[in-house]
Amino acid sequence: TIDYLLASNKRKSVETVHAPVPTNALQQIRITPTVSPALSATNLGPPSALALTSRSSSDRASARIISLSGSAKGTPRGSPKPQKLLNVREEFNKGNRSKPQISLVIGGHVDAGKSTLMGHLLSLIGVVDNRTIRKYERESQQAGKGSFAYAWVLDQTAAERERGVTVDVSSFNFETENRTVTLLDAPGHRDFVPNMIVGAAQADCAVLVVDATPGEFETGFEADGQTKEHALLLRSLGVTQMIVAVNKLDAAFWSQARFDEIVEKVNHFLTQVAGFSAKKLHFVPTSGLDGENLVWRKNETLSEWYTGEPLIRLIDALEPPERQLDKDLSMTIIDFWKSGTRSLMVVGKIDAGTCQMNENVLVQPINEIATIKALEVNGQNADWAVAGDQVTIGLVGQIEAQQIASGFIISHPAHPAKVKETLEARIVIFDIEIPIIPGYQATFHRQSVSEAVTISKLKSIIDKNNGKLIRKRPRALTRNTAAMVTLLLTRPIPAQPYSLSRELGRFTLRNSGRTIAAGVITEIPE
Predict the structure, then answer these.
(1) E-strand spans in 151-221?
(2) Pairing assessment for the beta strands 409-411 and 506-511 based on DSSP bridges
(3) Three-class SS of residue 12?
(4) What is the largest CA-CA distance in the chain?
């Protein structure tokens, strides 16, 4: 159903290229989607190299669009004099970047071992040195959490270490033989699903971690766990390639029967419900704590029946997505801070287009022009960046940190996104208990935007497979149906139809801590 939802609103074909990135040193930042309106240039300050402040995780509190000064319409303010700029596409086509880049998010139910799995992988491939691991081992043992040493590679905040769960999305850059990878470790606890959405919205591919421990898989998958919700969110947010790591299989004595049982159930859900293609799914048995089958395979029992690739090889084989270099610049702000007396630093992933030093850009919805005076791509200074790059940008202009919130976008001044509160959309309803009627309230999630929304009008029910009209003006929407609806947000946000921008045009709806629907924007009324 999600395949139809996305495919039925495809854009016109555009010229696309793959965007590789250069070799980079270790970098870790904390991606925090919630920004309080009370933040100012005085109390925000720059983040540490390892962690930004953890913030509220509630659906409505995260990434709120704050009250703004300035208009979202009319002539942008603060326009600097134009500068002589590079042809970024020509620079990119010179091939100075060594390897294609992918952004990889890690999802799955809480306590499935996601952080331990990836922390151990980073250690085995040399991204994290042995001295750091020994330090984490000592500190975790002193805290009475001896098995959490590898998880602490990614879980850096005191709150995460004390609770033993991931709260924010942490990011690492590393390289495989053929790829440069930005790793996004997303939280698995249901309280932090909005944060997980922020990470998933930046991802090209995913590793879904399931716990093979007897009883734990059933809790996370068959009961009211997060495995299914994460899978639905990942597919709804555009992820098409997935590796399923059947983790902690050592607790089942590396049983092939247990592995096959889990593969059968998860594969059925991913292909028949979530809409993944079987050709783009890969299943791998692992043990994050022991490090088995992450980089190499040593266990004799496992080697007797598993002949596939280890996790690192499967990651190396993931296909880089097509990059939208010929589109206008679009980047959603994930985080920001004030730097010195002039620059405002913003963090995000470029969804489309290019940017470069000394270029003027438009910050929406406050409609302010600013100039790029600092630029980093994956932690390295750069003169330009292209779609697919994770960037930190230093902006100079008549703009202050108090005016900015996560969820704002940076766009081309001549081609801004529309800023509206009313959206026409096509949605697919998930497994809901209470039918949706006009006036139904939920939380609208798109990248780092989280905004209260009302489904103000039910226009029609359509066939999930082919989009044909089934019924006009239905009284209610029930589970597993597709529909055309009108959404009314509490305040305007920058948006585009899915046909023009996949990233700005797709969203999810949540209510009472559960994902109830996924959709795409079909039209933005004038």
Answers:
(1) 169-175, 180-185, 205-211
(2) unpaired
(3) coil
(4) 69
* Higher pLDDT pick, 23 / 495: 495
188, 196 Cβ separation under 8 angstroms: yes
Tokens of 53: 């402040």
Q: What share of residues in the chain are helix, strand, coil (percent, to 5)?
A: 25, 35, 45
Residue tagged 């933005």 (tokens): 524
- Locus of tokens 């930004």: 52
Q: Which residue in 278, 276, 284, 271 sits closest to 314, CA to CA?
A: 284
Does the pTM of the predicted model rise above 0.70? yes
**End-to-end Cα distance, the chain:** 29
The Cα–Cα gap between 180 and 173 comes to 7
Give the closest residue to 370 by CA, choosing from 320, 412, 405. 412
421-458 confidence digits (pLDDT tens): 999 999 999 988 899 999 999 999 998 889 999 999 99
Q: Which residues contact 12 (CB under 8 A, 6 or more apart)?
A: 499
Cβ atoms 432, 502 nearer than 8 A: no
- In this predicted model, what pLDDT tens digit does every residue of 315-338 receive, in sequence order? 999 999 888 888 999 999 988 888
pLDDT at residue 24 tops 60: no
Q: Give the residue ranges of DSSP H helices in 130-236.
A: 130-142, 158-163, 193-201, 216-217, 227-236
Beta bridge partners of 346: 336, 393
